[in-house]
Structures are given as C-alpha cells and as structure tokens.
Amino acid sequence: MLFLLPAYLSENTSINHFSPVIKDYIMQTDYFFVENEKTARKVIKFFAPEKKQSDLKLFLLDKYTENADIKEAQDRMLNGQDFGLLSEAGLPCIADPGNLIVKWCHEKNIRVMPISGPSSIILALISSGFNGQEFTFNGYLPIEKGEKKKRIQNLESELQKTGYSQIFMETPYRNNALFEDLIKFLSPNAKLCIAANINDPEHEFIKTKTIKDWQKQKPELHKVPAVFVLGK
C-alpha cells in the first residue's frame, strides 16, 4: 500500500490536533517518498518519536523527479513493500509533486490509502468567508513582473465573471513582493484574505479585508508560509 500521510503546517501545532492513526501508519513502514529529507525526518519524529531514524529509507520525490529516478522504490512496492508519502507541509499531492507516485500506483493496481490531515489551501478558504462551493486553486503565480500583473488581473476578472473564489500562494520569501503587487494591481474594493502561519497557536494570522484597507495596514509576510484568497 501507499499511505498518503499529512504533515503539520506548523511545528508548534499540538499533537492532539492529529489522528493517532498517523503514528500507526508511520510505525508500519520504514520506506517513504519525501519532498525534503530534513523536513520528513522532523515530521516522522513529531508523530512517532520512538521510531529509529537510522531505519528510515527515504526516496526523494520532488518536482524534478521522474519514474526512472525512483525505480528501486517502485520495484520494492511491486514486491509487496508498503510505503508512506510525505509532503513538506499539509496533505501530499496538493501543491506538491506526490501525484507522480500515486498515478503510478493506480496503473500498477497498488492500493492508495489517504489519511486525514490539514491542508493550508482548504483551511484558508474556509476561514476567508468566501464562496466554498465553487473555487479554483491557481498554485504559484508567475515571477516575471508583467506576467504576474496580467495573472492577478485575470484572477479578479474570473472572480467577477464566475463568483469562484481564487486561491493562490507564493514562495514565502517572495510574499511581501506579491502583496505589494496585489494592492497595486487589484481594484480598491476587491476582497483579499491572507491566511499566514496556519495552525500556529502563537503566530497564526488570518484576515479578510478590501484592498484599500490592506493598503492602510500592511502585514509582514517575509518568509512566512501564507495562502491568498480573492473572493466575494
């Protein structure tokens, strides 16, 4: 089987927020597909501190990975070895490259088992006050200034046309630059939710305001994990 395991969104989140079955599945196997080895080891230690780190067999699965790069792991799965799949934060396969191995498992008739856990994208949406019936996750916006401006304006246009909430994110060290572009290129009355440090008991910040109000009170988002939502 392939266990789709959640990771915490904040290291400060209480273990009591998570289902105890996460630990059970981690204890069941030493083999994991991970986006980042250092993060994965910390997550595994968080859920199962008694598990020996030296026993772990970690296979890198990031946006550059192809099936040929993880052939050894796939061969083990075909021979009956259970694996876990861990994202850097939240649920695997959402804003995460884990779908590569999930797709392969379906093709090889290997059981895929999703385990409940937090998703920053869904938590931001339900905290925004915006339409949760119809929404679009747009991933990361373009880096190039002209393309980013066009994309931001297209998102607002799509929102006005369809009513679909528009969710997107940025690499944390670019958050402040993205925020400045949002307040520059969006209409003053457009509504924007910023959900930062989700699930951090001390530093969580979730606010929905109009752009003209955000211009008066700019948050500090540098190197802070955040999700942005445009909505009505």
Extract low-pLDDT stretches. Answer: none
Distance N terminus to C terminus? Answer: 42 Å
- Residue share in β-strands: 15-25%
The major pleated sheet works out as:
5 strands, parallel
Overall helicity: 25-40%
The helix-strand sequence is EHEHEHEHEHEHEHEEHE
Query: How many E-type strands?
Result: 10
- Counting helices, strands and paired strands, the structural category is alpha/beta
Which shape, going by the Cα principal axes?
Answer: elongated
The whole-number mean of residue pLDDT values reads 96
Report Rg. Answer: 19 Å
Strand arrangement in the largest pleated sheet:
3-2-4-1-5
Q: Specify the oligomeric state.
A: single chain
Separate helix tally: 8
Chart the SSEs and their pairings.
Layout: E1 2-5, H1 21-28, E2 31-34, H2 37-47, E3 57-60, H3 71-78, E4 83-86, H4 99-107, E5 112-114, H5 120-128, E6 135-140, H6 145-162, E7 165-169, H7 175-185, E8 191-196, E9 205-210, H8 211-216, E10 226-231
Parallel strand pairs: 1-4, 1-5, 2-3, 2-4, 6-7
Antiparallel strand pairs: 7-10, 8-9, 8-10
In words, what does this structure look like?
It contains eight helices and ten strands. With 232 residues, the protein is an alpha/beta fold. β2 (31-34), α2 and β3 form a beta-alpha-beta unit. The longest helix has 18 residues, at 145-162. The protein is elongated and about 60 Å long.
